[in-house]
What we know:
This protein is α/β, with parallel strands linked by helices.
Amino acid sequence: MMTRRIFILIPGAGGSAWYWHLVVPRLERIGHEAVPVTLPAADDAAGLPEYADAVVRAIGDREPRHVVIVAQPLGGFTAPVVCQQISVALLILGASRTSSTGVGRTLRLIPSSTSFMTCPSR
């Protein structure tokens, strides 16, 4: 039986959850929860702490051991800050300049080159 994961989807530049509109239904179709996050990019005073707060609010009271954070290029700055606050199951950092092979079925939904790391427990 497949473990149901909660994918917290952090966008890149622009901060719009819309970035993930093609990925969300695919993840849901295979039984996962997908939570695209909108970052406060329109607020010139917002920095990494405010971006991380938006992601932490999106995670809410979900069980961290089922949470997978997926971040596209500029979201990759926010994701480690979140991991300092919440010990999630996995962090996936996607980049858009190279391609990757051998990525599992679900993770192939993430475009381009992908790096994987765990967020250590505190």
